[in-house]
Structures are given as C-alpha cells and as structure tokens.
C-alpha cells in the first residue's frame, strides 16, 4: 500500500513539474494523454468492474464535448459569468443525463446484445449530428474560445494542461473511491453473478443503469476536456473510431487492473504523437501491437505489471533477467524485420517512387530509408529483414522456454508459501 | 508576471545574441497540415506534392530572407481533432504559414485555430492559406485577416458553368439540382437557384441526400426522369458522383450533367464512356495552358498536374510573388507584413490573372469549363478520355459579391 502511494505521488510530481519545460506540442500531447486516460478509466468501470462491454462510448464523450462547448459559447457571448475551470461540469451533467437515458435501454440486455445497443446509440448520434445544425453545428461543428477567469487567461496549452490534470486526477480518484464503496462492491457482484445479486433483493437493472450513467458522466468529463483543449467539437467525435479507440486503450492497458487503462491510453497517445509524422503506416503498427498484446498478454500491460507486483517476494531476477533479455532480443529482431519490410514496401508502392521510376524510364532507382540508400533488388535490401527475422525466430523458442521455466519457478514458490500459510482468504485473493 | 519575466529573459538573450554580433536569419517555415492517412489520403498527398513543387522552385531561386524555405508535413489523419493537435505542433515548430485543402470541416478547424492563436499571441501571428476547401462560410462568418482562399466556391463554379453551357447550347431551360446534404451541397443548391436568371432556366426540382452513404441512386434517377430536366447540376464528389452518373447511364436518362468534381483522379477510369459529353467547372485545365508548365511539372513529379494540383501551384506562386515584395533583411519574419503583401499580390497565368479580393481574401481566379471528350490533349486515368476546354471564364465574370457576414479586423 505504501509503495503504491509513493508511486502515485512520484507520478503526480512528474506530471506537475515537467510540462513547463516542454514545448507546446509536447504539452498538448500530455493533455491528450490525460483525456484518453480519464476516458479509458471511465469506460473501464463498465467492462472491468461490471463486465459490460460498450461499443458506443463515443456517444457520451461527444455529448460531454458538445454540452461544454454550448456553455462556452454562452460565456463568450457574455450571457453568463461562469468560471472557466468548472466548464467540465457541463460535460459531466450532459454525460450523466444521456448516459442514464441510454443506459436504461442498453442494460436491459447483456453481453453481445448490450454491446450492439450501445453501438447503435453512438451511431444514432453520429448520423443525426451533421443534420442538426442548431445543436451540433452541422458537419463543421461548433467553435468557441476559452474566456479568461480568475486572473488566468486560459490561452496557453500549459494552462489547459493543468486544468485537464486537475480534472483527470479528481475524476480518477473519485472512480477509484467508487470501487471501495459498498455500491462498487455490488458492481463487482453483478459481474460475477447477477442471479445472486437479484436474490439478495437488489434491483439489478436499476443498479446497472446507475453504473452506466456514472461511467457516461466521467466519459463526458473527458469529452469536455477535449472540447476545452481544441475549442471546437464536431460530429466526428461520435464516430466508431472514437468508440473503438477507447476499447483498444483499455484492453492493451489491461481491464482487470484499475490503473491499466491509464497505461494503455498513455502508451497509445504517445505512440501516435511520436510515430504519426514519421511513417504513414503508424495505424498498422498500432493494430499489430494490439493483436500481439491480446495474444501474449491477455490481461494487458497493466496485467503484466500487476503479476510482478503480486509475486514480488517470489521473483528471482537471476532467472528472470536472462529470460527477459532473450525475449527482448527476439522481439527486437522480429520488430526490426517487420518495420523494415513495411517501410520498404511503403516506399516501393508509393506514388513518389512510381514517379521516380517513370523519370528513370522504368528502371528501379535506389531509395532512401533510415538514412541509407537501398537498391530495390539489392541483396542487402532483402538480406537485412530476412536475417533479422531468422535471428528473431531462432531465439523465440529459447526465450519462451526460459520465460516459462522462470515463471513456473515463481508460481511453485508461491504455492509453497501459500501451503505454509493457513489463511484461505489469501488463497482466494491470490486466485484472482 | 511570469510572461513579463519570460519576455525580459528573451530580451536579454536577444541582446546577448546581438552583442555577439550574430543576427541569425530566420527561415520561413511552411506547415502542410493535410490528410496523409485515412480515406482522403490521395487528395491530401496531391496538395502536398503541388505545394512542395513550387517551394522547391522558390528555393532554387535563392529562397527567402537569405535562407531556403522549410516545409514540414503534418498528418491530420483526416480529422479535425488530428488537425487541432498538429496545429499546436506546428506552432511549437515555429511554423509561419499553414497550408491545407482537403475537407471544409478541417479547414474550419485550422482557420479558427489560426484566428485564436493570433488573438492570443500578437506579434507572433500565423497565416493560413486555404488551397481547396470551398465552404462559403470560410470567407463568410469565419473570415479573418490571416486567411486566404485560393480555390473557387460554389457560386464561381456554377456561374461559369451556366455561362459556358448556355453559350454551347447545352444548357436547356430546365435544370435539376441534386446535391449532398451538408454545407457544400447546400452552397451548390443556393448557387444553382441564384444563377437561374443568368442562365435563363427554371430549377424544376432540388434534392439533398446523405453524404457517401447511398449505394443505389436509381430512386433519385427515377425522380429526375419524372421532372424531365435538360441539365442536372451537382456538386457531388467521389462515390456520390460516380454512382449517380452510373445509375443515370443504366436508366438511359438523356440529360447533360454539369459537375464540379468530375476531374477527381480515378473518376473517368471508373465512369468510362458514361462520362462522355458531360461538363465540369474547375479552377484549371492544363489543356487550356499552352505554356510548358504541365511538362515541367511532370518532369519534377512524374505525372501531369491534375485535379487540385494546378490551383495549389498558383496559390504558392502568388505567395512567392508576395514574398518578393517584403524584405526582412535577414532578420525576423513578420507574418503580418507577408499577409499585407498577399492582399496586393497577383500572378498572370496562361488562363488569366489571379488576384486577391481584399474584402474577404477570396482569390479572384479564372474558372475553366470543360467537357469529357475522346482523344484529348491530355488523356486521364490511363483511358482515351480527358477534358476538352469549352470556355475559360475570366475571374471577374465568375466572382460573386463578398458576403456581408465577413467582418474583417485589419491590423493597423
């Protein structure tokens, strides 16, 4: 517990102290990281705690953004003296109201049918918004300007970042506190056995509506922060892409761990920030990362971190370090081969290269990649990825064996420790 | 307080720099915020290619302010959120001029971002050159001093199309308007109605439909058939144009289409002979250009300039002319001075002059009306079809009154 508090405090200190030293682009990326994190944590209340997979959370994210923007427009026109830092309250209110309404229908069903209803609700907004000019501003959307308040101008990305930081920390803390309340416990019970919850005399449906509305409310806060940051909102916020992105963040981060979605959201936001201007194939890499995480670490990055935390006393780094080293080498070689191939094909199939070929009368001119010149049919051009892939594949079985052995040892020691203790409660906790 | 401190620190640093006797020439930085991934990639890429072609020429002539002009590409991933993020990145990178063209929604985001940035950072302004977004609102209620549009708008295209088709005797007296239900489509419908007196026709019916969602246009074609028009005018693009024309062809509908985006890359290959004889009103047609521009462009990029590339080239050439009239003596770049010079800049093209209207910073440019013909001067999409010039309408004949909704604050 103490270790956890220290970790969180250290992260908070970094989040407060570092951004002033960065440039505007970085500050904006950090703001986006916070927004994506809050959205993912709010979304995870449904899938991680209540076991309900929503495919339409963009609806509440978007509603939060539009509600906030309408309020901003009113303030800008001088119709209301509302404190700028409290703007996300509009997003919270909008998300909660629409969430309660949508949740009432969606939670009548569970599983796939629930997911389909949420998908439909988001799509309803997505198709309605471009035609409802008064409320959503047509396809161009609404636009406003942050007004100064309380001595702050709210003009610079840094001020927006601190506003987002405050709201994100507060909201994530509230969502964490929620899990410690009796109602939060009831949420978990719903996931494990809805029948039992009903038998205990609770109304399962209205309980689920409340959970859904709370999740939608905090998604609305995240949408509000985006509206404040970009000072615009348009119908594309309701697109399936936004709904899918939050699912991706949550699962890569790990939905079983409270802070997992934060990890996933941060990793992917920074990934987009770094890679999107470097290569046009960045979405492909993002998809590959998602697939690999789902295949080899189904509980996500957060799940891996959590496993190490739980078995901390049984870890033997003398065994683990070589195994991890091997796995890292193999992974690096395979990633290198993949990236090399993808980038090479991207160049070879690009219109620019086609133009270069036309200029060279159909010959295959050399092309530049990673700062070096390559021949399209050069031995080296194809030897590099093949050798990298071969090295990676050769190391892979060894790495997997070493990993398995190391972790088998950890689990054996855990078993032994557990047999030594007599508390069945602990055993149950370790099971989970 | 902190801002003032920072200013003081910067002042001291500058003074120290001057004291060292090394005044650094500031290079002009141009940021292209375009859709370089996602569904609009092909168009976004063309904007970037054409803009960089001209910048390379300016740099070959010695660049600007004693330095080569720097171009930085940003991928907005085809969305407004991505554009907002990349705009902030461009500010961080010290970009002076932002270029963008594909999508009016993204243009709205970029132009608003530029406007707000300039309000908050007097003395460090940015300028936005709109290369291809045609929504009227951009030079209407969203207009501001630091935005320039170098493409046509719905009234310009429709006015030119009506003039040329009437002259050619292909217009008839009954016109049907079918458009996409969003700002551009509505702009087109208004322009088609407004030009009725000019072209001596009546608008028999108007339709607005969902954007890029309809797979089967036969019900619409049936409605068109009932109305019995001579000409169908449409601002549709991409699938909405192709499927409409194909459905009309399949139903044996005997009308002439007056379009605005028939020259989008791939359209003619897709439509084939169905497209023969139909009209397009566009900002440029290299068939009307007897200079060596098309060949030079092909030598540099590997293909003839198509679709939105010529208008982009003309926009950056105009910027180049404006840059010739300002001189920062190797010191700091003032975007406000460049913007003032842009207002007065003009270029001569083989099709006629291009100037900037001061009221709303809409470029006054010639509009070409072309018709799909067999064996043209420049075949497109690898077919034997292409665009033959019907008429070049001078800018002053195609231009419309500046919108009253444009209230521009000018820097003193």
From TrEMBL, chain A:
One cellular-component annotation, GO: plasma membrane
What membrane topology is annotated for this entry?
Multi-pass membrane protein
Give TM segment ranges.
Answer: 30-48, 55-75, 87-105, 112-129, 160-178, 209-229, 257-276, 282-302, 374-396
Listed GO molecular functions? Answer: branched-chain amino acid transmembrane transporter activity
Q: Does the keyword Electron transport apply?
A: no
Q: Give the UniProt subcellular location, in the record's own words.
A: Cell membrane
Q: Say yes or no: keyword Membrane present.
A: yes
What protein name does the entry list? Branched-chain amino acid ABC transporter permease
Q: What is the lineage of its organism?
A: Bacteria, Pseudomonadati, Pseudomonadota, Alphaproteobacteria, Hyphomicrobiales
Automatic annotation (TrEMBL), chain B:
The family database entries (SUPFAM superfamilies) matched by this protein are listed as: Periplasmic binding protein-like I
Q: Which UniProt keywords apply?
A: Amino-acid transport, Signal, Transport
Q: Where is the signal peptide?
A: 1-25
> Is Membrane one of the keywords UniProt gives this record?
no
Q: Name one Pfam family in it.
A: Peripla_BP_6
Domain named Leucine-binding protein: residues: 27-374
Q: Which GO terms describe its biological process?
A: amino acid transport
Family under the similarity heading: Belongs to the leucine-binding protein family.
Q: What is this protein called?
A: Branched-chain amino acid ABC transporter substrate-binding protein
Annotated source species: Kaustia mangrovi
**What are the top taxonomic ranks of the organism?**
Bacteria, Pseudomonadati, Pseudomonadota, Alphaproteobacteria, Hyphomicrobiales
